[in-house]
Specification:
The chain is an alpha/beta fold. It has 2 domains: about 220 residues, Spore Coat Polysaccharide Biosynthesis Protein SpsA, Chain A (Alpha-Beta Complex); about 110 residues, Rossmann fold (3-Layer(aba) Sandwich). About 35% of the residues lie in helices and about 20% in strands. The chain has 12 helices and 13 strands. The strands form 2 sheets. An 8-stranded mixed β-sheet has the order 3-2-1-4-7-6-8-5, with helices on both faces. α8 packs parallel to α10. The model has no long low-confidence stretch (mean pLDDT about 95).
């Protein structure tokens, strides 16, 4: 007798999460969409996490508990992928909470949009301390990216969707691969790779996940999430994109003449991208080895392709508005990078 395959497989890795894992699993148990399996992956926990997880497995056959001895959420998530059977794959973290209608709404989106390979959701940021303001700003920015174009053109700033909100088609992971191990943020690399391969990604315009932040979250403590690692991997995929879409390839103009902006942009030279000039918001003509334009005097769109290396969100948006008024089109004559 054949066993019916679940429609959705939820991959939920955990490590020493005894204080939060019950809340996370219960949020999956409480989904309005019930045709799922939930793969719980114990990644060498030394607390009571596994015992708590096992209790759910004993009470509901849709939950399965496996182990991954190689340390790291990437290894654990891939272990879940290797053991899941669903047509659609959902990610979930052990310290977060999925709203009841999350899976139902994401599945409905993918069923109604056959050209999309994956879909995320908006999130509510929940912090336990006063030292997570940066993450709150990131969430506000991420939540502002709804359409595919939003996600596509802003992916070189930061991760355009919150990883544990994602649901994707099995064939997308089969064709494009899952998380890779390396000296880079593995979730960010996967989404950059999928977008580079033409996977269309959307987002439900509703908060469907509570994203619990902490000072010990892996994105704060692991070196693969350092600023250097982010810029290294984003520059690799940015250079690939520029070779295909920049009409002035290999030349680019860098908006941002500060030392830190120049250092980040210089990584492009390792991928045969040539910086032709800098654009500065200060009209004091910095003495650099390349020409520096005061931003009001920049050449026309048919002369340069602009990459903006601006960290502050408000300043970045002001730059986008300015370039648009000057006749530049996002994706054709300029791109926001940071």
């Amino acid at each position: 007798m054949s066993v019916k395959q679940p429609k959705i497989s939820v991959i939920l890795p955990f490590y020493n999460a005894e204080n939060t894992i019950s809340r996370a699993i219960k949020s999956i148990l409480g989904q309005t969409f019930t045709d799922f399996e939930c793969i719980l992956i114990d990644n060498n926990s030394t607390d009571n996490s596994s015992t708590i997880a096992q209790a759910f497995v004993d009470g509901d056959c849709r939950f399965k508990l496996i182990k991954e001895t190689r340390q790291g959420v990437m290894f654990a998530s891939n272990k879940g992928w290797e053991n899941c059977k669903g047509e659609f794959i959902a990610r979930m973290d052990s310290d977060d909470f999925s709203h009841p209608e999350r899976l139902e709404m994401q599945l409905e989106f993918l069923n109604n949009n056959s050209d999309y390979g994956a879909v995320g959701t908006l999130v509510k940021h929940i912090s336990h301390s006063d030292f997570t303001g940066g993450m709150a700003r990131f969430v506000d920015w991420s939540n502002s990216l709804i359409t595919f174009d939003d996600i596509y053109y802003n992916r070189f700033i930061e991760l355009p969707i919150v990883n544990p909100t994602a649901v994707w088609r099995r064939k997308v992971a089969t064709e494009n691969g899952m998380y890779l191990h390396g000296d880079f943020p593995e979730d960010y690399e996967m989404w950059l790779r999928w977008l580079d391969n033409g996977v269309k990604i959307g987002k439900i315009n509703k908060v469907l996940l509570d994203w619990y932040d902490s000072d010990t979250r892996i994105s704060r403590t692991d070196s693969i999430y350092s600023d250097k690692s982010f810029y290294k991997i984003k520059t690799y995929y940015l250079a690939k994109w520029l070779k295909e879409h920049n009409p002035h390839h290999p030349k680019v103009a860098i908006w941002g003449a500060s030392k830190i902006s120049r250092r980040r942009a210089k990584l492009l030279e390792e991928h045969d991208i040539e910086i032709c000039c800098y654009i500065d918001t200060k009209n004091n003509k910095r003495q650099l080895d390349l020409e520096v334009y005061y931003f009001k005097d920049i050449p026309s769109p048919d002369k340069i392709f602009v990459l903006t290396y601006i960290k502050q969100i408000e300043a970045r948006e002001q730059t986008k508005v300015f370039l648009s008024k000057k006749g530049f089109t996002e994706g054709s004559n300029f791109l926001l990078v940071s």
